[in-house]
Amino acid sequence: MKEKVNLAQNNLVLENNLPGNWTTPPSLVNIRERLLIYLFVFITMILLFLLLILSPKLSNFVIPLSLDNAAIVLTLIAGIMALIKYFTRHDSKYLFIGYGLLGATAINLYHDLIISLPLGGKASSEESIRFSFLASDLFLAIWFLISYLVWKFDRLPRFHNFRSNKAYYFYFSVAGILIFLVFLFLSNYFLSFLPFVIAGLLFIVFVVNLLKGYWKVKYFEHSFLIAVIIALCYQVFLVPLSQTHADYWSVIIHFLRTFSYGFILTGLLMSMYVAFEEVEWGKNRMNVVVQNIADAVFVTDTWAALVLANAKAEILTGHSVKEMTGNYYKNFFKFKYDLEPDKEYPSFVEQVIKTRKNQILTSPTLLSLKRGKSLPVSLVASPIHNEKKGHVIGCIVTIHDMTREKELAVAKDNFLSIAAHQLRTPLGSIRWNLEMLLNQDMGELTDPVKQTVEQIAGSNKRLIDMVNDLLNVSRIDQNRVSDKPQQIEIQQLINDVIKELQPLSFQHQVKINFISPKMPIPSILIDPQRLREVFQNLLSNAIKYNKRNGNVTIELEERGDMLEITIKDTGLGIPEEDKAKIFTKFFRAINAISSATEGSGLGLFVVKSYVEGWGGSIDFESEEGKGTKFTIVLPKHPKQHALDHNLIQKN
Amino acid sequence: MDTPTPTQNTNKKLILVAEDDIYYANIYKIKLAKEGYDVAVVGNGDWALKFVKERTPNLILLDLVMPIKDGFETLKELKKMETLKKTKIIVLSSLGQDEDIKRAHDLGADGYIIKTNISIGELMEKIKSYLSH
What we know:
Chain A is α+β, with helices and mostly antiparallel strands. Chain A has 20 helices and 15 strands. Chain A has a six-stranded antiparallel beta sheet. Chain A has a five-stranded mixed beta sheet with strand order 10-12-13-15-14, covered by helices on one side. A two-stranded antiparallel sheet of chain A has the order 1-2. Chain B is 41% helix and 18% strand. Chain B has five helices and five strands, in the order E-H-E-H-E-H-E-H-E-H. Chain B has helices spanning 22-34, 45-54, 71-80, 98-106, 120-132, and strands spanning 14-18, 38-42, 59-62, 88-93, 111-114. In chain B, helix 4 (98-106) links the parallel strand 4 and strand 5 (111-114).
């Protein structure tokens, strides 16, 4: 069944051969075909038989002998194939089937020899000829029975431990040999009956299982066993016919036996063909899956040369897998940073192979397409290990098209900007109205009324701050922070912020100490509004969560290429269990919440994002009940947050 | 939309405000009057242009997002008028994108104030300083 696959984005139609369907390989589906093959074998052998008996020249002695020779060859081949199947598939029943067939071969050979070569100087007795004839069938029948029992035994969960050391092979083999020997020498009568009995039993089992639906087409492997059983059933005819010695019947008996071995061999060949087909189908299945993955996937060897690529990879690069195989991946997959197009993109495949670790590349990345276009993508590269030795033999890379995600981010940001704007407008008019009230523009304000108005003003300010924070946070999340850097005297800025926070520090009765540096600090190129926000956040925290009559000490120092700012307070401190989370969004430590001071929980997240975006770092030391010390390190030449130009939409 | 109420007192400075948000309009009316100015508040650019044909304000405060005729359009046309050569036109908007500020300056605005970032006291200070130069 050919599957046509439509890669919606690029309208490429792929034809992927998956014969059969996902759960069953093709030969399990074409049962008619298989039955036809058996029928073919059946008819061929009938024709051969007819040919043999109708040819006038061959004597009645030669025919049985040639049939016996044919039987030997067939059982030998079948036995070898059964053993090959055992060694490749580790299916224990084939081991026993193999023994059985090879044993039967040996006995048949003996039978042939005693017919054609007189042993000990005289012609062999009729008895011994018949004996050896039937013994091989008995041997075969017993071993098939054993293999059936082994197959059943393999499925019993109880004996798992017993099974795992393969000792049971030995026990089953011994049992098989013992049974054979017992019945061989027990009685002649038994000898002729037993193959028939065993064949009959297995036949009944077969029919019962068929009716139960157990041996469905799914278990095609058992077609071999089915063939065996059918073959053994022919032995049934040997029982009455072996009593007569008519040459004619002798020919028929020999023919039937050879015929049944031919059937067994056909069954084996069929099951091997099925196994082969299953492997091909398995390969095709995997191939179809990989080809149809919507993401582009490619695999390299340890030299970062391409080994495999799927259809999407072909589409994205515009080259076929044939062209790409064996060549360096960067010749076809050209990545660059979305925000810093001149910066070199890392050789991540080489890194993965060297470090043996996964790499998930998170920075906005563009993949260059033909005609100057590019695609926003996300990349994941993983090492491929050799199963036996555990060392890395290659790298697999998955490329995900991020266009949709990007569009969503833009839509989200537009929505947020509009929402923020819509929220700010009424909040702004509330604020002005409150300011007019407090300024007594609308008339005198008595104390209780004034206090109430102040409360409203406070809440309103919180709302305004919250809206600003939310918009900031969403911009940070999407790497949409863009700096407007200016040359800033950082000392001056800190002093400004301290002045701004005078009312707050007065309110909390906290003293602020700014220890100026000994040497003047050079100005740095940085976004003043954002830097101001950083200090506002940290200082207002230091004030708000401080003790009454507490202190806040700010120090500014030059350390080589960096500037170090420490903000120490004598406040609540940060509890041990909260230290790890203090910089996360909306997090407020429990002691901060219970201190009845306001805070959105976004401040430190914003501070950390800005500081790290500038190439600096922020850390803290804190002891609950004693105080906290925040240390910010900023480079003298901060990195600038660059705006993602692709995301700007003109309104 | 408001019909302007011209006064006879020529000592007071006249400020024209174009603002469609009724809450802000109300605040301007009250506060600017309190500060001792003559105030006229109109709800869109058309009305603003009509007003300046009859009277010449000392200062014009212009919102950007307005119905019928927006702030940019109005700014462009106001700038053409001879009678307004000595009148400063200040954009007073809640939008603050770089593109908007640039566009306003390109069209000849004498200043740009972002409403939502300042207190009303600060706004009055700015207006005072614009009027005194």
